[in-house]
Amino acid sequence: MYQLNLVELSVSDFLNNYWQKVPLLIKNGFKNFADPLSADELAGLAQDEEIESRIVSCEGQQWDMQTGPFDDFSQLGEKNWTLLVQAVDHWHPMAARLIDPFRFIP
């Protein structure tokens, strides 16, 4: 379903010259990318006790981190925080398909 476009790089060039050597930004690596899960689905995963999640936020210069599960996101506002959910590929089959284009990486 997803196919990685390395633009003008071959897989061999990528592995030999970039992988674990220097940073590389691949713009539009997935043409016409559509996120396989919505923000609501991600938030739903973060409510599950079996799934590791955390919220990282910053107010002024003060960073904070909370661990899930989370029941309510309303107090967080629209900016200065992010929700991290571990191992989404284990819980969401469509998100798991995002790993396939990278199987060439050792």
Q: How would you summarize what this structure contains?
A:
The chain is 22% helix and 17% strand. It has four helices and three strands. The longest helix is centred in the middle third of the chain and has 8 residues.
Strand content: 15-25%
- In the sheet with the most strands, the strands line up as 2-1-3
Number of strands: 3
The helix/strand order is: HHEEEHH
Helix amount = 10-25%
Write down the overall mean pLDDT: 93
Structural class given helices, strands, pairing?
alpha+beta
Largest sheet: 3 strands, antiparallel
Compute the CA-based radius of gyration: 17 Å
Principal-axes geometry comes out as: globular
Poorly predicted regions = none
What does this structure look like?
With 106 residues, this protein is an alpha+beta fold. The chain has a domain at 37-91. It contains 4 helices and 3 strands. It has helices at residues 11-17, 39-46, 88-91, 93-96, and strands spanning 53-59, 62-67, 81-85. Strands 2-1-3 form a 3-stranded antiparallel beta sheet, with helices on one face. Strand 1 and strand 2 (62-67) form a beta hairpin. The longest helix has 8 residues, at 39-46. It is globular. The model has no long low-confidence stretch (mean pLDDT 93).
